[in-house]
Specification:
- Helix 2 packs antiparallel against helix 3 and helix 8 packs parallel to helix 9.
- The N terminus is likely disordered.
- The strands form 4 sheets. An 8-stranded mixed sheet has the order 9-8-10-7-11-12-13-14, sandwiched between helices. A two-stranded antiparallel ribbon has the order 1-6. The chain has a two-stranded antiparallel sheet with strand order 2-3.
- It folds into 2 domains: about 80 residues, Up-down Bundle (Four Helix Bundle (Hemerythrin (Met), subunit A)), CATH 1.20.120; about 200 residues, P-loop containing nucleotide triphosphate hydrolases (Rossmann fold).
- It is an alpha/beta fold.
- Strand 11, helix 10 and strand 12 form a beta-alpha-beta unit.
- The structure holds guanosine-5'-diphosphate (GDP) and magnesium ion.
- The site of magnesium ion has 5 residues, from helix 6.
- Guanosine-5'-diphosphate binds next to helix 6.
Length: about 375
Amino acid sequence: MFFRRKKKVEPSESTTSLPTSNEVVSSVAHSGVSREKPVGSHHPASQGERSEPVGKTQNPEADIQDAARAKKVGWFRGFLKKTNDVFNTDIRDLWKSEGQLVDDAFLSDLYAILVRTDMGPGMATTIRDSIREQYRGRKVQQSDILAVIRERVAQSLKDRGGNLKLASEKPTVILVVGVNGSGKTTSIAKLANRLTKSGRRVLLAAGDTFRAAAVEQLRIWSERIGCDIVTADSGADPGSVAFRAMQRAVDESFDVCIIDTAGRLQTQSHLMQQLEKIKRVLQKKVPDAPHEVLLVLDATAGQNAISQAKGFSEAAGCTGIVLAKLDGSAKGGVIIPIAEQFGLPVKFIGVGEKLDDLEEFSPDEFAAALFS
Ligand SMILES: Nc1nc2c(ncn2[C@@H]2O[C@H](COP(=O)(O)OP(=O)(O)O)[C@@H](O)[C@H]2O)c(=O)[nH]1
Ligand SMILES: [Mg+2]
């Protein structure tokens, strides 16, 4: 179900999803094919980002969809450069003659190449085992192997994308958590900007009261975006900020309230308890809040740091991931182990420091961009 601006929520709907472009005029045909025209998008990739499969249709609007999809695939290709480079050079080198025999030596060489990409050893093992099962003792073309890899990747990422869940009754409450410096505050600003552009009234809560600079950082963003903010002095109880934000969000009918938090580790038990307290405070005003607990991860942090966040994600009851700082790293393949390890949808990816640098993650387009 796609969200339409000023769309009336049906009583049976508990949640609905965010429009996938910053500014879209969209309507949904009864055939299930979305019609939309991106308006005034700044980032090339934000011109239509539908991740849902589009059925065959006579509708000329489908051409717009196809073009938008092709654009997004091309854009994903850019940040998959490292992974694609490995495939295009190293894997090709495995072919000494026309057809390559799939034997133990080949499988072990292939595995060695796969683990050098950003996909992680789990995915490398899955792919190698699939190829062994399907082709062992037979001669294969490079295209056969690439097809298996793409299929396995698409399979593993299936259901690992996802739109932001918006509550049927406002306000939607989004709690944003993660370690220090992962990109929480910046991602909140980007998300608030996106929601504001799609016509929603957004209230920010500067719940990182540890550092005065953190409150100021969010305040400056809120001014730039033109959305409201609830702040407190540094050292104040983040629970009280959350409480005041909820009160305003409910009393003044805000659509969405996004709560920033201080960076923390799972091992800091007092900070984990503080997070629990923030949640309880939110629930006093909005019983089913928070509707999303987004974990912001730094894509450049490396596998170890990311693995450590898994316990945190479970302890904090996270519902989705924002993978920040994917720009410039050319290591987009890292999405695969992250989505697998956390078992959570990657809802957004951060691709720069500016307000427009936030994209929805779509597994289908991502897989299509691999070695294309
Ligand atoms: N290149 C890039 N930098 C980012 C991105 N997201 C955040 N940053 C930068 O990462 C640094 C830490 O971000 P911040 O939002 O303050 O992290 P927080 O401590 O988790 O709130 C800042 O310098 C941001 O500009 C991103 O998607 N790409
Ligand atoms: Mg911050």
